[in-house]
Amino acid sequence: MTHLNELTLAEARDGLKAGDFSATELVKAHLSAIEAARGLNAYLLETPERALQMAGVADAKIASGEARPLEGLPLGVKDLFCTHGVATTAGSKILEGFQPHYESAVTHNLWRDGAVMLGKLNLDEFAMGSSNETSAYGDVVSPWRRAGSDTKLVPGGSSGGSAAAVAAHLCLGATATDTGGSIRQPAAFTGTVGIKPTYGRCSRWGTVAYASSLDQAGPIARTVRDCAILLGSMAGADSRDTTCADLPVPDFEAAVARGVKGLTIGIPKEYRVEGMSAEIQALWDKGAAMLKDAGATIREISLPHTRYALPAYYIVAPAEASSNLARYDGVRYGLRVPGKDIAGMYENTRAAGFGREVKRRIMIGTYVLSAGYYDAYYVRAQKIRTLIKRDFEEAYASGIDAILTPATPSAAFGIGEKGSGDPVEMYLQDVFTITVNMAGLPGISVPAGLDAQGLPLGLQLIGRPFDEETLFAAAQVIETAAGRTKLPAAWWA
Amino acid sequence: MTAPVNPKKLIKGGLHDWEVVIGMEIHAQVTSRSKLFSGASTEFGAEPNDHVSLVDAAMPGMLPVINEECVAQAVRTGLGLKARINHRSVFDRKNYFYPDLPQGYQISQFKDPIVGEGEVLVDLADGESITVGIERLHLEQDAGKSLHDQNPTQSFVDLNRSGVALMEIVSRPDLRSSEEARAYVTKLRTILRYLGTCDGDMEKGSLRADVNVSVRKPGDPLGTRCEIKNVNSIRFIGQAIEVEARRQIAIIEDGGTISQETRLFDPARAETRSMRSKEEAHDYRYFPDPDLLPLEFDQAYVDALAEGLPELPDAKKARLMSEYGLDSYSANVMIADRAFSDFYERVLKGPDGKLTTVAPKRDAKIAANWVINEFFGRLNKDGLDLSQAPVEPEQLGAILDLLGENVISGKIAKELFDIVWSEGGDPREIVKSRSMNQVNDTDAIEAAVDEIIAKNPDKVQQAKEKPTLLGWFVGQTMKATGGKANPAAVNALLKAKLGIE
């Protein structure tokens, strides 16, 4: 018999409704799995008491016929979302001891709909990273291993804890955030599904900011349908975030079964980057064939400014980050390291509180906004951003419904293998995902097969603004055709 | 900047005359119930940190949301400054570290302010008037307050002001003397108060000025300027300009050069001191705030706000002059405060207060003299605000009516005013009950005159040779009638009886 924590979110929902098991049993199955998987370091903080209390409420609601859409479904929360009365660190020492007196809009929406919080998930510090190795609280170990090897692999990042927890059955689904690929890349590395919705689909209120114009919350789950269910609860208008769209949330789950008949899928030639592995190329071709077989038309398109996206991103995102992270000054909350005067206190606090990658991005951001460099860097990067956006608009205007690309340039790599010498090696992880954030579009990563070493690979679908429904429909076609990735057995337990 | 040089405004140096050039940045606190980007209260005088929202304290994940009332107030002010209203403006972040700046940046408007170029007409004491150009007005957040006197080793922070909306109103360097600068700030404050967009209370810090001062020989290009930060009274603005201009002149005449810097004015020592040099100036790393969309509205929005504006000082002055025949001086006194002219017009038009429909039944100029000299004079003497005045416009109006109807003389009217001021009451009743009415009965006056002539034959004789002695007879007659005799009748009778032409 399947363990309860190995059900999909949709299956668990239906089982609860049918009375096959209780929310408390479902939560307990997760709590013991989490306990057994502490070696993966996916959870920064487990909240079992709260989980059982919420499960108790859920069981009562189910019994009285008042079940809400996510009643009793246990989730993990990326530790970038502020949770009322529960420590929130953003993966950084500088927020050590910080307990918010408020609940982020996204998690509030999930609890409103009856979901259960299992705990807070590890991440790259302030969501800056692609391997979860920049977390101040240790690396997350992927549940995946190369065939015949016990080398520890990264789960990707920055939502590494979220992806690893979902892949290792430590939650039914998890919240995540994506600024340059932080949902889609770890989803691809762990054989899970992750969607970054359109910028403005989810409120940013109460989520620790990295780069405000790019940050967007979304779910990671084990199936396309589960992602659709979760996003339906996470999304929605919020007057507290003026960049959040005042639009109704569609029935995403209903879109999953729509199919792709009659849709035109674009294949952008510029994504055929130099040195792309044959495996990735083959996966991409396979994905296109799956969509074609399901009735879509495949067409090559051009997104000519693609190659400028990565450098432009590494100007815009650090610029915003350098300003967003100025509030961590030791004055009001979190870490404070005394100094001889106020400037000394700032310097000591920030020197001790931030890790290397965060400091690097603050310095890059400070530099590109400085007098004399602003026009050369920030202003030009914004112009590139406009051009990238226009590339997509033109493609969609020409009749393209969604765009298919690889999600990552490779499968997961080993902990410590990349980026220790040259940070750009790590930055290149986001080469396929970053354009989507720059243009504010929705993008979904869906598993499409394994590489030669038995590691999962993902494909990405990019949609029109606020058309996540087409992405769910197309991703479901790939999930069905490729078959759901068989997640690894619990070697860690 | 190229206006003709007025020699009267030049400052005498040791070697020659100098022209001082002044531009101002006024920080005016927007009148609004809540802050620029949060719902926290703006009320003055609360306990430290009582009015602080999660946004004001820059808690992680908090986002600013624009307060629409502050936008409306900025547009109203722009209209009051006859300025261009920008239908699209952008909020930028001005980045620097300070404990009273929780976000680590101030949200301000740098490249695209909400209000563009405008102007302010300023009347000076000598009757001259100047037009001061407004370069821009933008919205920004105020900072909190660092408290250094609460603990021997630590500083505390009060964030009540953090995030309160300010309008920064930037003038062109159009001012040429400390007097002009003071008059400009006074006029600007009057306009803001008329509009109801800033209370202008400098003691509470609702209005602060950064003053840019430079000097040059008349006709030369602009000199290097120094910025005097945060001057918080109109008197200090004048003093700061005087001492700073003289400091710069002394340096230049000694063969030195002025270095561009930020300075502070110390009123106790009457000097300005260097705060930071140009080299030490912050690099604020301005960039558009990604948490806020550009601020956009249409002309219909501006038109609706324009329709709701009150009559502004310049228009009111013109109307007082044309409608009531006031001179420029009297009109200026009346418009200095909206309440002044309101009081005056209520005196003029009677108790119904319908300022626009009822024709004046009281003499406008006499009323103006009474309001300015007697009423405002008495307020000043007693140190009272208009709102604390014990005399209502209706009471003053009644006194003026009694005067106009010849029931009382001017002298008695002043006595009556004193009585009403200190005791209150209906002036007409008081005149009746205390028999203060003027004696217009010629027979009664004639009896008094005859008696005085009879008693003073020598003076009568002298008066025929020296007609100015008439005044003595008038005085005696007034004394004999208890001051109530109609002075015109007394005069006429005496002249006839004494044979003076």
UniProtKB/TrEMBL annotation, chain A:
The gene is gatA. Gene3D superfamilies: Amidase signature (AS) domain. Keywords: ATP-binding, Ligase, Nucleotide-binding, Protein biosynthesis. Heterotrimer of A, B and C subunits. Its EC number is 6.3.5.7. It comes from the Bacteria. The active site is at 78 (charge relay system), 158 (charge relay system), 182 (acyl-ester intermediate). Signal peptide: none annotated. Belongs to the amidase family. GatA subfamily. Residues 25-471 form the Amidase domain. InterPro entries: Amidase, Amidase_CS, Amidase_dom, AS_sf, GatA. Allows the formation of correctly charged Gln-tRNA(Gln) through the transamidation of misacylated Glu-tRNA(Gln) in organisms which lack glutaminyl-tRNA synthetase. The reaction takes place in the presence of glutamine and ATP through an activated gamma-phospho-Glu-tRNA(Gln). It catalyses: L-glutamyl-tRNA(Gln) + L-glutamine + ATP + H2O = L-glutaminyl-tRNA(Gln) + L-glutamate + ADP + phosphate + H(+). This is Glutamyl-tRNA(Gln) amidotransferase subunit A.
From TrEMBL, chain B:
Residues 342-498 form the Asn/Gln amidotransferase domain. The gene is gatB. Belongs to the GatB/GatE family. GatB subfamily. Coiled coil: none annotated. Heterotrimer of A, B and C subunits. The lineage of its organism: Bacteria, Pseudomonadati, Pseudomonadota, Alphaproteobacteria, Hyphomicrobiales. Allows the formation of correctly charged Asn-tRNA(Asn) or Gln-tRNA(Gln) through the transamidation of misacylated Asp-tRNA(Asn) or Glu-tRNA(Gln) in organisms which lack either or both of asparaginyl-tRNA or glutaminyl-tRNA synthetases. The reaction takes place in the presence of glutamine and ATP through an activated phospho-Asp-tRNA(Asn) or phospho-Glu-tRNA(Gln). InterPro entries: Asn/Gln-tRNA_amidoTrfase_suB/E, Asn/Gln-tRNA_Trfase_suB/E_cat, Asn/Gln_amidotransferase, Asn/Gln_tRNA_amidoTrase-B-like, GatB, GatB_C_1, GatB_Yqey_C_2, Gln-tRNA_amidoTrfase_suB_CS. It comes from the Bacteria. This is Aspartyl/glutamyl-tRNA(Asn/Gln) amidotransferase subunit B. It catalyses: L-aspartyl-tRNA(Asn) + L-glutamine + ATP + H2O = L-asparaginyl-tRNA(Asn) + L-glutamate + ADP + phosphate + 2 H(+); L-glutamyl-tRNA(Gln) + L-glutamine + ATP + H2O = L-glutaminyl-tRNA(Gln) + L-glutamate + ADP + phosphate + H(+). Its EC number is 6.3.5.-. SUPFAM superfamilies: GatB/YqeY motif, Glutamine synthetase/guanido kinase. Gene3D superfamilies: 1.10.10.410, GatB domain, N-terminal subdomain. Keywords: ATP-binding, Ligase, Nucleotide-binding, Protein biosynthesis.
